[in-house]
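Morning. Coffee machine broken again, so started the prediction first thing and wrote up yesterday's gels while waiting. Chain of 506 residues, entered below exactly as on the submission form.
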Amino acid sequence: MPPRSSDHCAAPLIFEQGALGRANRYVESGKPLETFLPHRLLRDDLPLPDNSELDVVRHFTRLSHRTFGIDTGFYPLGSCTMKYNPRVNDAMANLPGMRDLHPWTDDALAQGALQVMYELERSLSSLFGMAAFSLNPSAGAHAELTALLIAKRYFKELGQTRRDKVIVPDTAHGTNPASAAMCGFKVISLPSDARGRVSLAEIEKVLGDDTAVCMMTNPNTLGLFEDDIRRIAAAVHAVGGLMYYDGANANALMGNARPGDMGFDLMHLNLHKTFTIPHGGGGAGHGPVGVAAHLVEYLPTPVVAWQADPDADPSLAPSDRLRFRLDFDRPKSVGPVRSFWSNFAHAVRALSYIYANGAQGLTKVSQLAVLNANYLRVKIGEFLDIPYDEPCRHEFVASAAGLKKRTGVRALDLAKALLDRGYHAPTIYFPLLVPECLMFEPTETESKETLDGFVAALREIVQTAERDPEAVLAAPVTTVVGRIDETRAARYPNLRWRPRGEALQR
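Came back before lunch.
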């Protein structure tokens, strides 16, 4: 808190020294600080600890070692694609011309930034078979809601407001039903068949003239490709509905298959998954929404448009004679869905990744992700049950149900024991249709040596559980925080910032 000044009028600017001085240069000269901050928030002095630089550096370095991230260890978090984020992407996003540009800069002075957004939008459209993308949405669930708002506006324009049903298979991504409900649709849950896929026959049972959208993840959350997808899309289109593609698993098919070619009308991408943008821990994401040609006019505003620059040097290539602008004049648009135009730094990172890899490189990225997942699937299948034991895509699920029956050790216990061995736990208990589920996604950025080390650690944990279950049930024992009661922790959190002596209200 700022200290009080004994002489508010002694200088034209208050507290000129240091960061506090810079902050107060916006304070009008001659007025007391209490004019701008309540008196109770002001202090007479600003005590600072007397520590050496080395002590401070060591303190924060030790704290950083307690934080697990992709830079410190293997992160096989199924359905989240926690892959390595190349540092060159961060360097590009931190170029002064990108980093320091104000979002309200006039279009004429922001041509480079607008070109980045335009080229990213065109690249994503080409890669995934869509007519156009909007870079507006901030993350995956935000993009799902945006896509459903587009669908709702589309049906309203057609006068088909009775379309209020959204079909969501149980192998779809977890936020799909929530997004549909938030948009005012009724959710029709669809069970998968014995093969872990959506059955065309089951889809046809629930289709009708009230069907609005069918939301699907392909590959689904079991890591299996929906091989009947074109027939499913044709059935939904036959009753006038739209197909929505959840792009959370796009790392499995980038450059190898396109949702647009499968029959999807709407989709989103998690750039913070497939396109190596840091995510997790509540950090910012980016979830562009793509649409087929008949839905382009409903995309959020603004979109980047272009025209030929009449003043450009005619000797330049046609692509270098364009003038870009932000286009807000879209009468049928659902409107902006966030402040400003996009998560621009992430757009720079994603475009850097696309250009660094090129079309062939991006195709290889997905092929290696599929290869690594199948390698891990076969190895883990030697000591854990694999409910859908067939070639997977980028991820797969295993089950600890048999182990639990024999030893009492659950998927949760295996996950905690992995923490003791220096690995992040996989996703557990999702999807819900697999008992004691563990979902693994190794991504393409992990080496065979890393995968082999992970398999060895998990095998050793399972072997320990068979002979000494209590040793696994006590895990983790090497981490800063040991075994906790998850249910109690969620219901009665120990809030450190609670005033001392104040009882927690139950």
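The first helix runs from residue 18 to 23. Going to sketch it on the whiteboard this afternoon.
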